[in-house]
Amino acid sequence: MKHNFDLIKGSCIYMVCAFISLLPFHTLRILMLRILRARIGKKVGLYRNFEVRSPWKLSIGNSTVIGHGALLDARMKLTIGNNVNLSNEVMIWTLHHDYNSASFESVGEQVIIEDYAWICSRAIILPGVTIGKGAVVAAGAVVVRDVLPYTVVGGVPAKQVALRSKDLNYDLGNGILPII
Predict the structure, then answer these.
(1) TM segments (predicted)?
(2) Which domains does the chain have, with CATH numbers?
């Protein structure tokens, strides 16, 4: 009986989060996620059609931008730093299935994305990964292991392709469009 209740509760939370992602203003979306115990900093842009799982295990720093259609899986904890740019349709997973498990068991670990990181469109971050300060993940990359600070990675699986300047001091919160 408890299992059925948990399934219904999880489904309801999923539907509430889906509704929140459609609200017309960043401030409304952020307020509603804060009510669900997400920790979200100041000057954050959270664009529409995102998907969030377990918002009470989600932490987003100041002046961070989350693009349209981003998937934020916080079931095992997701920490996103300050001035992070998650472009459109990024997927961040903290939980997935063990393909060698006879029962298709779920396994995972938290994901950490440090300050000034830039995750480009349609990149995928898998469970247990830390993206270092100032690192860049190229569009379409699949990140299966930690990315060192100020490193640019790309490909499947993601590998280092360049280095990024360490002289970063921008504030992404100044460019957020309020209504989108």
Answers:
(1) 12-33
(2) 2-167 (2.160.10.10)
**Residue 92: closest CA among 47, 56, 137, 30:** 137
- The owner of tokens 């934020």 is 72
Check residue 40 and give its pLDDT.
98
**Contact in structure between 38 and 54 (CB atoms under 8 Å):** no
> Taking Cα atoms as reference points, which of 38, 57, 34, 27 lies closest to residue 176?
27
What is the token pair recorded at 31? 């307020």
- Give, in degrees to the nearest 5, the angle at Cα 109 between 105 and 113: 145
Question: Measured between alpha carbons, how far is 48 from 58 in angstroms, rounded to an integer?
Answer: 17
- CA–CA gap between residue 147 and residue 36 (Å, rounded): 30
Report d(CA 60, CA 81) in Å as an integer.
Answer: 6
Q: How far apart are the first and last CA of the chain?
A: 42
3-class secondary-structure state, position 7: helix
Per-10-residue mean pLDDT of the chain, 180 residues long, equals 79 88 91 96 95 96 97 98 98 95 94 98 98 98 98 98 96 82
Compute the half-sphere exposure of residue 132: CA atoms within 13 Å on the CB side of its CA.
Answer: 14
